[in-house]
Amino acid sequence: MIKTDIPDLYILEPKVFGDARGWFMESWSNRTLEDAGLFYSFVQDNHSFSANKGVLRGLHLQKGDDAQAKLVRCTQGAVLDVAVDLRKGSLTYKKWLSIELSADNKRQLLIPRGFAHGFVTLTDNVEFLYKTDNYYSVASDVSIRWDDTELGIDWGITNPTLSDKDANAPLLKDCDVNFVYKAGIE
Length: 186
Fold this sequence. Notes:
This protein has 2 helices and 15 strands. It is mainly beta. It has one domain: Jelly Rolls (Sandwich), CATH 2.60.120.10. It has a 6-stranded antiparallel β-sheet with strand order 1-2-11-7-13-5, with no helix packed on it. Strands 10-8-12-6-14 form a 5-stranded antiparallel β-sheet, with no helix packed on it. It has a two-stranded antiparallel ribbon with strand order 3-4.
């Protein structure tokens, strides 16, 4: 487990055991997280497929009581994954982290509640999976414009393929996101 510069945001590098047949890894273990002092109870798995390089999905989050922590990974192809700290009072408020997640590097990103999340595909034929610790709620769904200058995220792309929802997403200043940072609480 690798701590990032943003509190409560972790990169996970599973142990991969390989031989002539292929490889094996434990993609998630509650015990491993709890041994590291992290307590999550995941209740929903999501799986997306993006056919082409340059597809951008995000920035997304759930607000209020429906906020979600996520454990994300890419199982086919590669993405640039982005998490943005939106917890007011955090020393890293509005700071973002980007990391390449791929089928090859098998890295995962553990994103606590209070963060916006998105990714852009770096290859064709990308499969992306994530666990959430809360169920999806359409009433609590929030999108933030991917190229909001207030956040200044470097996606490495200027003209991504977007859904209508993401293309028309509001700027952060026009969203009613109101997370508050509490040290040591995910």
